[in-house]
Amino acid sequence: MVNRGLGTAIALGALFLGVLAAACGGDDGETLTIYSGRTRDLVEPILESFSKETGVHIRVRYGDTAELAATILEEGRNSPADVFFAQDAGALGAMVEAGRFKELPDGILQRVPQQYRAPDKRWVGVSARARVLAFNPEKVREQDLPASVLELTDAKWRNRVSWAPTNGSFQAFVTALRRARGQEGARDWLLAMKANGTRAYANNVAQVQAVAAGEVDVALVNHYYLYPLLKERGEGFKARNHFFTDGDIGGMVNVAGAGILDTSKHDAVARRFVEFLLSREAQQYFAEHTYEYPLAAGVTPPAEVPALSTLQPPAVDLNGLHDLSGTLALLRETGVLP
């Protein structure tokens, strides 16, 4: 989980990464405070739509998901947050471990498949994304790509691979790897990847662009970063997605989701907001504008994206990805993070 020692250090940094920003809504309405690990450019249109439809005044603190989780723990009973809108299930699990979420009603939970919500009813997934291997088709044929992410340590991939160690989704993948292969197995893979010349980038967009530019041949990213670039630059953009199959850990599916803080004094409007995130309007937005997988029934992803039902992801218990502190410690121990 995200412990308080980590929280003290991270909370200070988070003050600079996120601010409380007013969205739409009249001053006379009720106010809802959201801590969002999803970026402003991504979710602000949805927040504005909710505010316009309900008259609820929204205050948002944007920042890195892990840092916001640590901030909530550091704030304790004094946290002003009503809703935590997280980028990944690991941070949501950390909140559950700390006892910081209220139970959600079945009417909300049952809108999404069971594997994408907390069994104790404390959080619900809103949208999903798959881990993929972005590749440059002019540098490597898809049939020559490895069957498993674990094979990227082979010498033939030396200096050809990239990752984004500071990215929350990558860290969630490493947490899943620790659970699947054990601490030593994850450590061995990280060290072997580092020794094999894996290049670090700041984020997933930079990685996909690096693949297209020929800086690296393949990159470990989430699936949805490719499609806006293809839309913007056309089919000549030299990057494509390879989806790992046969339950390989490299193809894990993670979720963005939300939970209501145990200290919230605005339960009804907080539940209304979480319910809105699973509405057709919001789900269609995530599908069409961010190319994520909608989780509520009745909304399908764009044609460019393989249907979630056709993927063969590993059986990862998203509720078991809460040990972010352990993953960060391992990444530092192996030198993947400074």
What can you see in these coordinates?
- It is globular and about 60 Å long.
- The chain contains eleven helices and eleven strands.
- With 338 residues, the chain is an alpha/beta fold.
- Helix 1 crosses helix 3 and helix 3 packs parallel to helix 4.
- The relative contact order is 0.18.
- The chain has two domains: 179 residues, D-Maltodextrin-Binding Protein, domain 2; 130 residues, D-Maltodextrin-Binding Protein, domain 2.
Query: How many helices in DSSP terms?
Result: 11
Number of domains: 2
Overall geometry comes to: globular
Biggest sheet features? 11 strands, mixed
Distance between the termini: 20 Å
Level of helix content? 25-40%
- Quickly give the CATH architecture of the largest domain: 3-Layer(aba) Sandwich
CATH superfamily of the largest domain: Periplasmic binding protein-like II
Radius of gyration: 19 Å
> What structural category characterises the helix and strand content?
alpha/beta
Characteristic terms for this protein:
globular, 338 residues, alpha/beta, 38% helix, D-Maltodextrin-Binding Protein, domain 2, 11-stranded mixed β-sheet, 11 helices, 11 strands, single chain
Please render the helix and strand layout as text:
Layout: H1 4-17, E1 20-22, E2 31-36, H2 40-54, E3 57-62, H3 65-75, E4 83-86, H4 89-97, H5 106-109, E5 124-135, E6 161-163, H6 168-195, E7 199-200, H7 204-213, E8 218-222, H8 226-233, E9 240-242, E10 253-260, H9 267-277, H10 280-289, E11 293-294, H11 324-333
Parallel strand pairs: 2-3, 2-4, 6-7, 6-8
Antiparallel strand pairs: 1-3, 4-10, 5-8, 5-9, 5-10, 5-11
